């Protein structure tokens, strides 16, 4: 059973979507090196020739998966950015939207985390074309609300690091169990902590 139940595909899906869904799940679970094309094709219910026809080689498939993930993330944050207000409430709404998106799509959060841990570092165009513009826009918005001495760029990255750390690493309870985003009480407690972190980093 997949660790990422939110990524699913059925035989009724178009082949490309089935391939991207299967590749997303396996790249998230195993990383680029640990997910051979043969395994992705098998998970999608297709043969390797069909996978190659739709997406090209494994590197092309990885790029397609990461670009789709980046686009979904951008769409999820679009409304919060468009309605942003330069105050603590506006910053909190943006941080909440990011947290909620990552909690609802753990497979996408895992893709980025694996990439940050040295996955395919030679594919730098992805960050330049997809990640940096979105992060840059969020930094611009945060700067509008921040105090004069605050470092908005590092504040935004601190939110990203903390969200991924919580969702993947969790918090140990008194019995040693890891509480993550799937635990609603832990998620809301983390949300409150995240708000306080942002307030402090941006001098709100």
UniProtKB/TrEMBL annotation:
User: Where, if anywhere, are coiled coils annotated?
Assistant: none
Q: Which InterPro entries match?
A: Homeodomain-like_sf (IPR009057), HTH-type_TetR-like_transc_reg (IPR050109), HTH_TetR (IPR001647), Tet_transcr_reg_TetR-rel_C_sf (IPR036271)
Record has DNA-binding as a keyword:
yes
Name the residues that span the membrane. none
Q: Which Pfam families match?
A: TetR_N
4Fe-4S keyword on record: no
Q: Which residues bind DNA?
A: 36-55
Which residue ranges does the record assign to the HTH tetR-type domain?
Answer: 13-73
Q: Which UniProt keywords apply?
A: DNA-binding, Transcription, Transcription regulation
The name this protein carries in UniProt is: TetR/AcrR family transcriptional regulator
